[in-house]
Amino acid sequence: MKGKQLKRLQHRQAGFTLLELLVVITLIATLATAALVAYDGIGDSAQATAASNSTSTADGAIRNYRAVTQRFPDQWDNLVTTGGVSPGFLSERTAQRFANWAVPTSATPFGQALNTAMAAVGITEIQQRTTATPTTGVEPNLQHNEGATNNNGDAAENDWAAVANVAILPTFGTAACQVNTVALGAKLDGTAMAATDGDRQNVINDSLESDQCNLVIALGFGHDAAHSTSNSSVAISTAPTFVSQNINPATTYARYIALFHVGQDGANGGAEDNNIVAGELFTKPRLLAVVDTEGRMIDENIAAQNPN
After folding, report:
1. Integer angstrom CA distances of residue 243 from 17, 91, 146, 305
2. Mean pLDDT of 105-117
């Protein structure tokens, strides 16, 4: 009797039965599936977290510099070329969020008022691309820098007063907007500005009404803009880079973008008629917000951290 019990014990100690192995394998598979579900989207969440932190850091650094020096950093990146087209290294996502504006010449009252306003906050020079074709061998984030392009003429540092085209935030009033009696064109992706763009400007900042034309200049906070602060006690050491599923710094421009509110239809007692004139420009542009390269605000980045 004792011999039979010993044999049963030895048999059980020899290993799991086939049924027990199947149960264990099933449990492991179930746990693995649960883990995959738990970690699904963790990469997107991490990118969103980094983006919200960088947006906040860039916004805070720029505002701090302004508070201490009474001026904004200089030498911002122009998101359009000198001819007013989208550079080849600009992402389609970026092109959907911004438009080109043909700046009135410095000889006009509007141009003079704008030049004076920009100079009042320290924005006197702009980094520009003279061609839409990317410079071979140069990272997208450095395409605006003359040194990086070996001073071959693809990039230039121009006085603000000489800027003929600049990127703006699309806007819409009770109808299509004009600036200095000239109708605004299409967005950089070729689509026309519409009422949804008026809604979008209101989302970014509630002081911009959905049915009111606003002139908001969009400038990239790039390599040169950060370095323009070097001689200050509150210098900004580097320009942060944005990364997402849609923005790859190896192939597309990936800087954060500052939105400067320079004029508003009806400002300074002007008539609200969907046309922003010289008298409706502010004496000093205001920093509305810093957005990522896809045009998203910090609130949208934070929401993307927990999409489920």
Report:
1. 51, 12, 24, 14
2. 97
The distance between the two most distant Cα atoms of the chain, rounded to a whole number of Å, is 114
**For the chain, what are the domain ranges?**
2-36, 41-297
By CB neighbour count within 10 A (0-12 exposed, 13-18 middle, 19+ buried), where does 262 fall? buried
Residue 111 gets the label, from left (phi > 0), alpha (psi -120 to 50) or beta, of: alpha
Count, residues in the chain? 308
The pLDDT tens digits for 190-225 are: 999 999 999 999 999 999 999 999 999 999 999 999
The confidence band for 252, taking pLDDT boundaries of 50, 70 and 90, is very high
CA distance linking residue 117 with residue 129, whole number of Å: 23
pTM of the model: 0.84
Residue 36 tokens, joined: 């995959």
Conformational region of residue 194, where left means phi above 0, alpha means psi within -120 to 50, and beta covers everything else: beta
Could you tell me which of 177, 166, 225 has the C-alpha nearest to residue 201?
A: 177
